[in-house]
Give the backbone structure.
Amino acid sequence: MLNFKLSPEQEDIRRAAREFAEKEFTPEIIEKCDREEIYPIDIVKKARKLGFSIVKIPEEYGGMGLTLLEECLITEEFYRVSPGIGSACMSSTFGSELIELFGTEEQKEKYLRWLTEKDGISAMASTEPEAGSDVASIKTKMVKDGDEWVINGTKTFITNGTVCDFALVLARTSEGKKRHEGLTFAIVETKQKGVKATKIKNKLGLRASDTAELVFKDVRVGDENILGKPGEGFYQLMEFFNHTRPRVAAQAVGIAQGAFELVLKYTKQRKQFGQPIAAFQHTQFKLAEMATRIQAARLLCWYAAWQCSIKDPKPELSSMAKWFAGETAVYVADWCVQLHGGYGYVGEYPAERYYRDAKITEIYEGTKEIQKQIIARRLIGKLEGGS
């Protein structure tokens, strides 16, 4: 029997997340962080102390021990108020899923507890200047030298790159028969010699979230920092995305919900031709379309997250949720600006910020084109002679 009702605990979590975001993400702070590209470390720490950003880390390592569904509930509420600050808070443990899924007991004790007990910040570094959607084109090398591995290469568009304490770095350790073979993750502490982080500025959106280029020059790590067996990195990354793409869907739903609430209020107040613009049939149709798409995206997000929560992730479902929710965020944000008219184009109203913040949900953690490819391949299977 299907049950679309959240549990009392889940409702409490959702309510607490909304109250925190509405209290801490003030209009003044949102504007300042966006305009000046400031990482809101104090708010990030407050969210951490209340357990919001460690909700999915197991209790035995100091986390809340809940599931991806609860994390998605929190994510939506944070992004509804401020996608930028919401990203800074909820992405502060980005990459930890890899350690949860594939780490040794020693790695979990050290690095998950670094997040839960020491306000640590993590990152996941796979993207390179010439390897985005095409992960198999990674050029960063990791070569064995005695008892250590030596890493050389460049990563770009790395969330938390200049503020993280450690990063999960994907590098090539060997050449395989297939392009995606021979990739390996290493846990790299970023304060060590040879790691250089440079902040990427002037982004279109999510300006409160830290994004950087990471350069590794003769960086050394021991076997104890290798995640799983060498050569398994590509498969680990694909599994990682199964669990994180529903969260991006939740980000998109939050952005869409925030933009929708903004435009709904505006259309009821703004008068043209002697009546509120919400009285016009065209406006009503657009509001109906937006609300319907948001609800559909939310349910798809929850379904994908629930599959992960019962330890049965569906790659095609995670991709469906991310693609559809991202497209919904862009659609709603676009109409939010359109229905605000000229006011939607200036910073006096937050409509333009939601518009700028929405687009990234169609790009990172796999573009919408990649999501459609994943979905199609799961539907029709791998064609003979195809890739």
Notes: The two ends are 40 Å apart (CA to CA).
